[in-house]
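tool=predict chain=A
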Amino acid sequence: MLLRSPRSHKGPRSTEILIGIGFFVAIAACAITALLVPAAQLETRFAVMGVVGCLYAAVAADLWAAAVTGVLTWTLATGFLIHPAGELTVTGGSDAIRLFAIVGISLAGGLYGISRHRRAD
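tool=predict ok
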């Protein structure tokens, strides 16, 4: 099934565990991005968050975990990198575009990870 991660030789990985790990990866990425990228560079902050989501999804090789991590990454980026007070405020079309971009790049990373694992087996 395409939505499940392939079974590796090290044993099965649970989607729920991968989602939990993705949550911590998204929190760490948000904190590091907030410290290193200036507040005026909003699109750079989102790009960094998107790349981190994509890289994690490629390692996780699970589309459900990739999608959930993408949504979590978007909510953290929107709530803490755009509105520093931590308010998740959706302001319109630009936020929707960012949501689709981050989730899309996370799913692309997940698909790459799945294909990489299948070629390795």
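The two ends are 15 Å apart (CA to CA). Helices lie at 15-36, 42-60, 63-82, 93-120.
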